[in-house]
Structures are given as structure tokens and as C-alpha cells.
Amino acid sequence: MPGRPVKRQRIARQNRIFADSEFWDRLFDEYLSKGNMNRAAQIAAKDANIGFHALMNVIRTEPDKRRRWDDCRQMLAEKQIDDINETMDELKTGQVDPSAGRTIINTKQWLAEKYAPSVYGQKTQIDMKVTDTGAEHLKALQDMMNRKAINITPDPKQLPDGKIIPAGTDIQSD
Length: 174
Hints:
mainly alpha
């Protein structure tokens, strides 16, 4: 298998990069502070010569990196809200056209909703506990069937001389 050593080398390089704390500091401080998080992660992965999906998998699975990722998202959402406040101040002073200001505010609001939907989103989130009742339903049906079951197996017949004839056997009299 000629491709296998190359794949092993690539995975080993990714693991060395992922083990380096400087890489993660640079990723979260330089790349993600700029704005578009997925695009920044793609650029960081390309610059480090690692796979984007491998990078995102590590971010999703390791709790400390996931926490830093979520913190960056929250920071960017708050930055959008600050930009909205600045735009509103510019609207009040007449520095920005009202229609352009509304477009800017709507765009920034949309970005804030995407970065932190639990804080700035418009949808309400309902926590529901969903249980699978299929197993309980089957158990109840089995219990009901066992209670109503009737033994329809015929009893074996016994001849006067004490012989037992299995059920379903036809007896002919002479």
C-alpha cells in the first residue's frame, strides 16, 4: 500500500501541531479575533498544512479548545453589538444615511445572532424530555397477551387399556 506511509506522516504532523500550545494560542488570538471564524480556521489549517476537518474535530472533541472556541464566538457577537451601538451613535449625529445605517445594523444583528444564538437569537429554546415509548408499549402488549392467552393445545386421549394417543391422531374404531 503505497499511500499508507504518507498518511501516517500527515497524521503524525497533525498530532505534533495539535500538541503545540503555541499553535492554539495563535489560532485563537490572531486568526479568530479577525471575524469569520470558519474562514479563519480554514486559513489557519492551510497555513499549518493540516486538514480543516481534523482541526475542527479537535476543537469539537477537546473541552478546553471547545471552551476557547465558544469564548471567541461570544467575543465576536459582543463586537457586533458594539458596532451596532457605534452605528446608532453615527445615525444620531447624521454621519450615516438612515437606510444604510439600518442595513448595517440588520447585518450586525444577524451576525450577533449567528455567533451567540442563545444570547442574541430571536428564537426561544424549549427544553423537552423525549422518551421512546416503543419498548414500554411492546412490554404492555406482551403482558396483555399473556393474561388473555388461552391454552388451545388439545389434551392427549387415553384408551381404556391405559395407552395414551398423542393429540391430533385420528382414532378409528373397529
